Amino acid sequence: MLPEAGSLWLLKLLRDIQLAQFYWPILEELNVTRPEHFDFVKPEDLDSIGMGRPAQRRLSEALKRLRSGPKSKNWVYKILGGFAPEHKEPTLPSQGPPHLPEPEGGLKCLIPEGAVCRRELLGSGCFGVVHRGLWTLPSGKSVPVAVKSLRVGPEGPVGTELGDFLREVSVMMNLEHPHVLRLHGLVLGQPLQMVMELAPLGSLHARLTAPAPTPPLPVALLFLFLRQLAGAMAYLGARGLVHRDLATRNLLLASARTIKVADFGLVRPLSGARGRYVMGGPRPIPYAWCAPESLRHGAFSSASDMWMFGVTLWEMFSGGEEPWAGVPPYLILQRLEDRARLPRPPLCSRTLYSLALRCWAPHPADRPSFTHLEELLQEAWPSEGCCVRDVTEPGALRMEPGDPITVIEGSSSFHSPDSTIWKGQNGRTFKVGSFPASAVTLADSGGLPATRPVHRGTPARGDQHPGSIDGDRKKANLWDVPPARGQRRNVPLERMKGGTECAWSHPPGVPGSTGSHQGRCGFSHPEPQGRPALPLE
Ligand code: ATP
């Protein structure tokens, strides 16, 4: 392929320093088309295209010669630098200080306005609308992307919205993780646009609540998603960031088996010895997902993200149900402080529920850390098996020889080790129910019929009762909440739509209720009767 006229300067520059072999990678992978784009290229980016450190130093010197005078910073650079998270990407190791410019951020690229064309609307959030789009690289190659455009009113963007938008950019441009949505670049046009990796299958919440004939998500896949989420959250935590908006609506499906954490509009850097972020003003927060200390003091930390992880887990195993549906926001805190907890969903094993309860420990220090989470998930991981005979007994989960079976749990194993009734999901029909253990061989049992309990973890507190699998809901009583007036437990999916998102807004009857997704934007804290929930700073 011939070099493009507009980037001949790059080819010349690279030829002069015997690095012409990096012309296409720099152009196509790092999207550098103008000298100033190097301001946003980090050493790690050059590492990623295979350029060694000595070559990087040569490039840096050549760039200095090319661009005489002091480095000019454009306004976006300045704004984004101001919002950069405290923990920066690691700098070059022992080979001496890097000579390449090292901006606080590291935009992959600034994308020319004409290079992105927007297609259909994917959705809208607080400060922008998201379209499917196509990004044409300098080489002419087209990449499907998602384009988030800053919503602009008649008098231009509102201050907070612009701030939130740029904060989201500044956070995302520093992140690179297989389960974190990738920012490709920024279009400095009217409106400002974020060009992001496209998650073609939409949000996990939409998938969880998709009506028939879409089959429910298999339990084993939900576990895989939990592990991916734990990895992404450990990554954010290691960078000193708190997400503050973890929920299935903000997990996007990049493929049928891959989720990506998205929506970084509420992300904040942690600070101080206590590793907390305390809200600096009245801002909307997702009540039903929040830890008590966030609701009472506006305090967020990795531990409050862990609480939200527990609620997200609950959503996943409840088929996308709305947590605390029908409970007014000001009562949620009261319930939590009275030690009420979301009940165990039918698909959730005791071991996994006990993990959720640990995420919801009243004291933040008692919650697990994201780095420890993978191990805990491993303990709760369901066994896989294969059906060896027809099961047609009334009330039992129907299965045929060869059906893949995910064993959710051996129901009464804690009390009668010889129990032979297990609970599981048939991977062919996606139905869940109990079945004789003898009908299934476990994948790791060497082909022998299953006769032992399969879970290694500790049973959930309040859940250590003898009884049938079908009594699951009852057994959560100790931690369960009395359903609030009007609380929906098994709400038809159609009615659920928007309900989850209403958690951001005032419930019906509370002044200021919008009853829509836009609730978070127009939200001011509901006045709890006699109990201040969040400081109005
Ligand atoms: P808010 O920003 O107010 O928290 P939100 O997360 O719904 O709300 P956006 O992040 O603006 O708002 O997303 C709006 C919609 O676009 C969502 O429904 C989301 O699922 C979809 N969406 C966002 N980013 C992508 C993407 N990269 N790929 C596919 N769909 C996306």
From TrEMBL:
Per its record, what are the GO molecular function terms? ATP binding; non-membrane spanning protein tyrosine kinase activity; protein serine/threonine kinase activity
Q: Where does ATP bind?
A: 148
Example of a GO cellular component annotation carried by this entry: cytoplasm
Annotated InterPro entries: ACK/TNK-like_SAM (IPR055175), Kinase-like_dom_sf (IPR011009), Non-receptor_tyrosine_kinases (IPR050198), Prot_kinase_dom (IPR000719), Protein_kinase_ATP_BS (IPR017441), Ser-Thr/Tyr_kinase_cat_dom (IPR001245), SH3-like_dom_sf (IPR036028), SH3_domain (IPR001452)
SMART domains given for it? TyrKc
Q: Which UniProt keywords apply?
A: ATP-binding, Kinase, Nucleotide-binding, Phosphoprotein, SH3 domain, Transferase, Tyrosine-protein kinase
| Residues in Protein kinase domain copies | 116-377
Which EC class is the enzyme in? Answer: transferase
**Database matches in CDD domains:** SAM_TNK-like
Q: Which reaction does it catalyse?
A: L-threonyl-[protein] + ATP = O-phospho-L-threonyl-[protein] + ADP + H(+)
Pfam family example for this protein? PK_Tyr_Ser-Thr
Which protein, by its recorded name, is this? non-specific protein-tyrosine kinase
Q: Which organism is it from?
A: Sapajus apella
